[in-house]
Design brief:
Elements lengths: L1 E5 L9 H4 L4 E5 L12 E6 L7 H6 L5 E4 L9 H6 L3 E4 L5 H17 L1 H9 L17 E5 L3 H12 L3 E5 L5 H6 L3 E2 L2 H7 L2 E4 L23 E5 L8 H10 L2 E6 L10 H5 L3 E3 L8 H19 L15 H24 L6 E8 L7 H13 L11 H7 L3 E7 L7 E8 L4 E9 L3 E7 L2 E5 L4 E8 L4 H11 L4 E8 L5 E8 L5 H7 L5 E8 L1
Helix pairs in contact: 4-6, 12-13, 13-14
The structure holds 1,4-dihydronicotinamide adenine dinucleotide and 2-oxo-3-(phosphonooxy)propanoic acid (HPV).
Length: about 525
C-alpha cells in the first residue's frame, strides 16, 4: 500500500486517480481524523503554500515523490529532493489559461482603476473624474518571460489591438513569428512598453529583475504587473517609484512574502492586489490535480512519468542503479561549463565498463543538463536539455569503448569549441564515491564536490609555496590539494578544495604568480 499526503488545498475531483487506486491511501493534512505516520508517506502533493525544504523532506524519510499541483516549484528545494532521490513532478500547463486570463483581468482593472472605483461607489461616493483611465488599444505591452502564460497573454493582447514586445532569452524566431510578437532585448522592451507584465520563474537571475536602478529607464507613467512570483519586481523599488510618480500603477497577484507584509505597497492608492489567485479556477485546479495524480500513481507503480523536474522518465529500479552516475554526469557537465571560457559547440560522452550495459543516453542528458545549468536561466533537466542544447547550437553525442583505463567504470566527457578542447574523465567507486581521474591531459584524483580551484601552472619549485602564502594572507584554509603533471618541469595542474566559496580578489592575486597560467573557481 502506498501512502499519499495531500498537504495543500487540492481539488478532490482531480485527485480521483489516486482516490480510486486500490493500492493507495490518501491523507489530507488539514483533516484531523486523517492520522498518518510521516515515515510511511510515499508521495507528497502540494501547491504553493507548503515549503518543501530539507527539514520536511527528512521528516518524510520514506518519501519517493513530491508533486506540485501547479507550475512554479520555487517552494520546493529541488537540490535537496534530488540528493535524497525524491522525484519532483509538476503540472506545467494545467493552469496556463487561468493565469493568463487573471493577468489580463488585472491589466484591464489596473488601467481603468476598477478596484478603486468599485470601493468608491460602495463607499457611497460617485467620483467619476477621479477615475479617468487609459485605453489598451494601440498601447505597447511588454511581456518579460515568454513561455506558456506569456504566449497566452500575447494572444489576448492582440485581440485588444495592442502592440506586443517581448523579452525571453530562449525565445526562438519561429515562436515569436507564430504569435506575431516582436522579440527584443530587455532594455528595449523596457524603453518601449506602456505596460509591462512579467512571466518568468523566480530564479537568482529574475529576482529583482526590475529594481531601483532600472525602473527609471522605463517610460514615465508605465504600469507594472506581476502575476508570476513575488520579487521579480523588487517591492521596495516599486513602492519608491510609485511614490515618485515614475510608475503610474501596479497590479500584483504575488508577493515576496505571502501573505504580504509590505503594507505601504499593498495599501498604495495606485496598487491593485489579489491573493495569489492566478490559478484559482475550478478548471485549473481540476487540471493540475488530475495531471499530478496520474503521474504520482504512475511513478509509485514503477511506470514512467510525463513531467519530472529532476529525473528522466525511467522506471525507478533502473534509476536506482544509475543514480550515482546520473549525479556524476551533471557534475562533469558543470565542471566543463565552468572551465570553458569560450563557446562550446560539441559535447561527446564516452562510457566504458559496467555502465555500458545500461541505457546511457539518460546519463548523456544529465551531462548536457549539468553543462547548461550554469549557462541558462531556466530549469534545465533531462527532459528539456536536448531542446535547449539545440537552441543554443550545441550538438552532442555518445560512444561506448572497451578500454576503461583500469577502472570498473568510466565516464569521459569532451567539450569542443572553436579554440578549446576540454576533457574530463571520472569513475564512481561503490562505498567511496565519485572521483575525477583525468583532466585535460593530466591524470589526477579528487572528489568533485564543494568549492574548488582548478589551477594550471608550470611544475617548478616554489609555485605551490607562493600560492600557499596568498591563501595564508587571506586566512583561507586549503582543505585538500591534488597535483598532476606530465613531465618534471613541464605543464601541471592543481585542484584545491576549500571550506567556503573563494573571493574573486584572491584569484586576481594568484594570477600574478608568473608560473600560474590560469585559476578557475569551480562550484560543484
Ligand atoms: N499567479 C499564479 O497563480 C501563477 C503563477 N505562475 C508563475 O508564472 C511563471 C511562468 O509560468 P509559465 O509561463 O507556465 O512557465 P514557462 O516555463 O512556460 O515560461 C517561463 C518563461 O520564462 C523565461 N525565462 C526564464 N528566465 C528568464 C529571464 N531571466 N528573463 C526572461 N525570461 C526568462 C523562460 O525562457 C520561459 O520561456 C511560473 O514560473 C510561475 O512562477 C504560474 C502559474 C500560476
Ligand atoms: O502554479 C503556480 O506556479 C502557481 O503559482 C499557482 O499557485 P497555487 O497552486 O494557486 O498556490
Amino acid at each position: 500500500m502506498f501512502h499519499v499526503l495531500v498537504a495543500d488545498s487540492i481539488s478532490s475531483e482531480g485527485l480521483t486517480p489516486l482516490l480510486e487506486a486500490e493500492n493507495v491511501k490518501v491523507y489530507r493534512k488539514d483533516r484531523e481524523e486523517d492520522n498518518y505516520n510521516p515515515e510511511d508517506i510515499d508521495a507528497l502533493l502540494v501547491r504553493s503554500a507548503t515549503q518543501v525544504d530539507d527539514a520536511l523532506l527528512s521528516s518524510l524519510s520514506n518519501l519517493q515523490v513530491v508533486a506540485r499541483a501547479g507550475v512554479g516549484v520555487d517552494n520546493i528545494d529541488i537540490t535537496a529532493a534530488t540528493k535524497r532521490g525524491v522525484v519532483v513532478i509538476n503540472a506545467p500547463d494545467g493552469n496556463t489559461i487561468s493565469t493568463a486570463e487573471h493577468t489580463f483581468a488585472m491589466i484591464s482593472s489596473l488601467v481603468r482603476h476598477i478596484p478603486q472605483a468599485n470601493m468608491n461607489v460602495k463607499g457611497a461616493q460617485w467620483s467619476r473624474k477621479k477615475f479617468i483611465g487609459t485605453e489598451l488599444f494601440g498601447k505597447t505591452l511588454g511581456i518579460v518571460g515568454f513561455g506558456r502564460i506569456g504566449g497566452e497573454i500575447a494572444k489576448r493582447a492582440k485581440a485588444f489591438q495592442m502592440k506586443v514586445v517581448v523579452y525571453d532569452p530562449f525565445l526562438t524566431d519561429t515562436r515569436a513569428e507564430k504569435l506575431s510578437v516582436i522579440s527584443l532585448p530587455l532594455d528595449e522592451v523596457m524603453k518601449q512598453a506602456d505596460i509591462i507584465t512579467v512571466h518568468t520563474p523566480l530564479t537568482k537571475e529574475t529576482k529583482g529583475l526590475f529594481n531601483k536602478e532600472n525602473i527609471p529607464q522605463l517610460k514615465k507613467g508605465v504600469y507594472l504587473v506581476n502575476c508570476a512570483r513575488g520579487g521579480i519586481i523588487d517591492e521596495e523599488a516599486l513602492l519608491h517609484h510609485l511614490n515618485t510618480g515614475h510608475v503610474a500603477g501596479a497590479a500584483l497577484d504575488v508577493f515576496e512574502v505571502e501573505p504580504p507584509t509590505n503594507h505601504d505597497l499593498v495599501q498604495h492608492e495606485h496598487v491593485i492586489v489579489t491573493p495569489h489567485l492566478g490559478a484559482s479556477t475550478k478548471e485549473a485546479q481540476y487540471n493540475v490535480a488530475f495531471q499530478v495524480s496520474k503521474d504520482v500513481l504512475a511513478y509509485l507503480n514503477g511506470q514512467s512519468v510525463n513531467t519530472s523536474i529532476n529525473l528522466p522518465t525511467i522506471p525507478k529500479e533502473i534509476y536506482k542503479k544509475i543514480q550515482p552516475f546520473y549525479q556524476l554526469g551533471k557534475t562533469l557537465g558543470s565542471i566543463l561549463s565552468q572551465s570553458a571560457k569560450t563557446p562550446i559547440e560539441e559535447i561527446t560522452a564516452t562510457y566504458a565498463g559496467v555502465i555500458t550495459e545500461w541505457e546511457t543516453s539518460i546519463l548523456t542528458k544529465s551531462i548536457i543538463a549539468g553543462f547548461l545549468r550554469n549557462r541558462v536561466d531556466t530549469t534545465v533537466n533531462e527532459v528539456n536539455a536536448a531542446t535547449i542544447a539545440k537552441e543554443r547550437g550545441i550538438s552532442y553525442g555518445e560512444k561506448h569503448q572497451t578500454d576503461s583505463y583500469g577502472y570498473s567504470n568510466i565516464i569521459q566527457v569532451e567539450a569542443q569549441g572553436k579554440d578549446v578542447n576540454l576533457v574530463v574523465r571520472a569513475t564512481f567507486i561503490e562505498g567511496f564515491g565519485a572521483r575525477i581521474v583525468h583532466m585535460n591531459g593530466f591524470d589526477i584524483d579528487f572528489a568533485p564536490s564543494g568549492h574548488l580551484l582548478y589551477v594550471q601552472h608550470t611544475d617548478r619549485p616554489g609555485v605551490i609555496g607562493q600560492l600557499g602564502l596568498i591563501f595564508g594572507k587571506h586566512e583561507t584554509n586549503i582543505a585538500t590539494m591534488h597535483v598532476g603533471r606530465m613531465l618534471q618541469g613541464g605543464k601541471a595542474i592543481m585542484m584545491l578544495s576549500f571550506d567556503q566559496p573563494l573571493e574573486k580578489v584572491l584569484i586576481d592575486e594568484i594570477l600574478l604568480i608568473p608560473d600560474i597560467s590560469s585559476a578557475i573557481i569551480l562550484e560543484l
